[in-house]
Amino acid sequence: MSDNSRNPSDDELAASHLAAVRKLDMAYAELLRGIAEMQDRELHKGFNSLTQFQTENDRITKGEALARERAADLLYRQRGPDPPPLAEVGEALANGLINREHVVEICKVTNILSDKVPAADLVAHQRNLLVLAQQARPHEVRKVGRRIVDFVEQNSKTAEDDDREQVNPQCELSVWQAKNGRWQLRGALDRLGAQTLQGLLGVLAKPKPKDTATGAPDPRSTAERQGDALVEILELAARCDDLPVQGGESATLMLRINLDEMTTNQPVLVNDSTYVSMNTARRICCSGAAVTPAIFRGGAENLTLGRSSRTATKAQRKALAVRDHGCAFPGCTRTPKWTEPHHVVFWTNSGRTDLNNLVLLCGRHHRVIHHTDWQVHMISGRPAFYAPRWLDPAQTPQYNFAHRAPDRATA
Predict the structure, then answer these.
(1) Based on the number of CB atoms within 10 Å of its own CB, is 395 exposed (0-12), middle (13-18) or buried (19 or more)?
(2) Sequence-distant (≥ 6) Cβ neighbours of residue 284 within 8 angstroms
(3) Cβ distance 407 to 151 under 8 Å?
(4) Nearest alpha-carbon partner for 190 in 71, 328, 284, 312
(5) Which of 48, 83, 175, 366 has a Cα at 20 to 30 A from 256?
């Protein structure tokens, strides 16, 4: 039997899969280039439009045809002497570094911000999303894109606009009883109210541990778990008891404020998720709410425990939250609430419980580091990740750019 007929090894099969995916992405880039050329020539071969040409001949939906045309226009359509607005994204797609879904998310942000920010800021935001797209899945690019749009829109509001919103927050709740006797709820919350609710649900709506007798997981759906959590929130409020904790932290609002910017009107990041004005942040700090202000300048404080303790302290967790902003694995968007400190040098290998040996990881990526060939090392005080050699023979250090603040876009 010849060598050509042998079964591929596991590594070869995985590499073959990645090569096929890259070819698919490069083929999509070639498709968009052709559509851009057809747009320039106004070519649709007797059909009413290029959109109709595609729906009839390619047998695709009108929505897909329009999405292709928008992407082709931004990535590959020349505008006189100027390059296409997303030329760098087009080049990355042509090289198989990102895929169609990444392109869709970057185009969405570009369309929303094109007339809202200076050209230099728009380019910087696009580059940040492009860097993220090369290490993250499309839904994580979407999440960061929404955060960028959120920051821009919040930053564009005047003090009068913000005061008007805060005096009359647009929160709504409709409650009615259905024919089956159960009560139905429908409503809307403002930014801050939504963050408070999400913080509580994050604590209370987690799946229950597996049944110790049968090993069965929590059978409830996400909606059922959140419904049960809402009832528990109401019961807690009625009793006025202290709220439970998650990962050693109370269910609080985390305000991330740069000390050098406290006298400015820069928006403030709440729970690593949404932005409020500095005036609103000051009001929150004066209220009776459970608030943790993460006020920082430069790097986090160097807190060390050595070998005296295996688990990180509450102070260390807060310092890690300021440094890592959430799960540090490349492309992950999980916020600090959903993470746990991981020893870079394992505790069982004499690793120390010091900040320079700790990194925040979500549950999924904690398992990846422990049970796959991915590795993490500290470089100049930052966690750097290394993919398995079959995926990255060059062993290039990778960092998480998903938590990069939009206000640092031009830095």
Answers:
(1) exposed
(2) 192, 253, 255, 276, 291
(3) yes
(4) 284
(5) 366
Looking at the whole model, is its pTM more than 0.90?
Answer: no
Mean pLDDT of the chain: 82
- Phi, psi torsion values for 259, nearest 5 degrees: -55, -35
Query: Which tokens hold the place of 398?
Result: 């990778």
Among the listed residues 287, 275, 281, the one whose alpha carbon sits nearest the alpha carbon of residue 262: 281
For 389, what's the count of Cα atoms within 13 Å in the CB-facing half-sphere?
A: 0
Q: How many residues does the chain have?
A: 411
Report percent pLDDT > 90 for the chain. 39
Cα–Cα distance between 106 and 109 in angstroms, integer? 5
CB 302 within 8 A of CB 184: no
Contacts of 237 (CB under 8 A, 6+ apart): none
Could you state, in order of their start, the residue ranges of all structural domains in the chain? 9-155, 314-408
Average pLDDT by consecutive 10-residue portion of the chain (411 residues)? 69 91 96 96 92 95 95 92 93 96 96 92 94 94 92 77 61 84 85 81 82 80 89 68 47 64 72 73 58 52 54 84 90 85 84 88 87 91 92 92 68 39
196 backbone dihedrals φ, ψ, rounded to 5°: -65, -45
What pLDDT score does 299 carry?
43
Closest CA to 189 of 148, 230, 151, 152: 230
Q: What's phi and psi for 97, nearest 5 deg?
A: -90, -25
> What is residue 205's predicted lDDT score, i.e. its pLDDT?
86
* Rounded Cα distance, 201 and 225, in Å: 9
